[in-house]
Amino acid sequence: MKSLKKKIREEATVLSPSVIKVDSFLNHCIDPLFMKEIGEVFQERFSDERVTKIITLESSGIAPAVMTGLVLDVPVVFLRKQKSLTLQDDLFTADVYSYTKQTENKISIARDHLGDQDRVLIIDDLLANGQALKGMVEIVQQSGADIAGCGVVIEKGFQDGGDDLRSEHIRVEALASIHSMSEEEITFKEKDVT
Ligand code: G4P
Ligand code: NA
Ligand code: NA
What we know:
Elements: H1 2-11, E1 13-16, E2 19-21, H2 23-27, H3 32-45, E3 53-57, H4 62-72, E4 76-82, E5 91-98, E6 103-110, E7 119-127, H5 131-143, E8 146-156, H6 161-167, E9 172-181, E10 186-188
Parallel strand pairs: 3-4, 3-7, 7-8, 8-9
Antiparallel strand pairs: 1-2, 4-6, 5-6, 9-10
Helix pairs in contact: 3-4
């Protein structure tokens, strides 16, 4: 997605060899019109997948997920990073270990909101090691729903998450896939030309 790569080049800050700051449009500020464009591109990429529902993880996944749900005309459910173990019986849950934060989160969704009649598109903001996406995949599998694929706004292609999921035959679409990054320069993967 050209406009996204332009925004990354102009606005992102590379904080360390593996961490990129994109607060100006993804993790803190949101430009609604630009986010709607993101939703439209996800809609194009997944238009042949008969998606019935979108899931994402709070908080930064919500904006792109909602915009995609708007154009695909399907409901959106965001998983919670639960801090309590109550109501466990009514939930699908998975453990997600964050390498970045070195913490483990339990993510959850009420069983009422996901079932074997669903074909689910999983949306998230950033793909690094893929722990969050893998947790969401696990939850969809628990529910008996089908996985249409995963859509991420930015993939850090030099980390393993995307390729891990693809090797499990899960379709992963990134709107911008970073090949390398440093304070001086961010380069994108060739195939990601549109
Ligand atoms: P993973 O899911 O791909 O394994 O990533 P990891 O556990 O390492 O990431 C934990 C959090 O950090 C996630 O957000 C993820 O989106 C974010 N993250 C990972 N790499 C980067 C990066 O280079 N830049 C930025 N800005 N974020 C990164 P989260 O904890 O779920 O927070 P939220 O923003 O959704 O609230
Ligand atoms: Na996220
Ligand atoms: Na995030």
